Amino acid sequence: MINFRPGNFIEKDSEESKFFVIDEDSLLVFSNEQFIRPISSDELKWSGLEVNEKHFLGFLNDEPCYVVSAKKDGCVLENFEFLNLRALFGRIPDELFGAISRALQIVNWSKSNKFCGRCGSTLRAELHERAMICDKCDIDPLYPRISPCVITLIHKENKVLLAHNVNFPDNFYSTLAGFIEPGETVEEALKREVLEEVGVEVENIKYFGSQSWPFPSQLMLGYFAEYKSGEIIPDNTEIDKADWFEIDNLPNVPPSNISISGKLIEAYKEKFN
User: Fold this and answer.
1) Whole-angstrom Cα distance, residue 75 to residue 212?
2) Mean pLDDT throughout 195-207?
3) What CATH superfamily classification does 147-270 receive?
């Protein structure tokens, strides 16, 4: 049983601490192990890795858990490799995805906020909260920034509207998604994105759930929406194909154990089983 409890501050370290190791957007894993895990304090100590940064994430099974940023050069751990997080879908236990997502986002935020955007001075980390401070400028602390996105499954009786992004493999489809623009409500953004990407209108919008998505720092807000009117016309910029699919005869779709898109599809499928 895996339990992760997020935290921003810890008073005392532990010899039982666990560490996720990240190099750019890749995570240290072991090729001879089926599932992803953090490394121990001893493994980190004898790894040969040169740690650039260390950030507290929270508690994993009640033990302190960190992310460290390090270059893979010099690592002497057996059977290690660094893999992009997207390549690890299926190997990350559901309970660990949030912790690893948090790790990647915090490392990327730290790398992108070394200097003050107003005066150019070096920023320092606040000790008691997740923030960067400029001692020379009277500006507010810089907190990690999250980009809110809306993601929706459009349905019409026993059919769902799925789309093929121009970057997807063939025969892989997903739900529609997009960023919320300044001044928009979630519902307004949902309707706009759907109309822009596939040319249809929706109604009866119902909230499903949310998910942190570290590509790069998004909060996905999931909704169901009922088809109202219009013919499917892909925008041919982001979406090159879209169609209605019977819920029991779907193309390849995102896995429900990792992606909120897959969870939306699976939840709607259960209504007809």
Assistant:
1) 30
2) 97
3) Nucleoside Triphosphate Pyrophosphohydrolase (3.90.79.10)
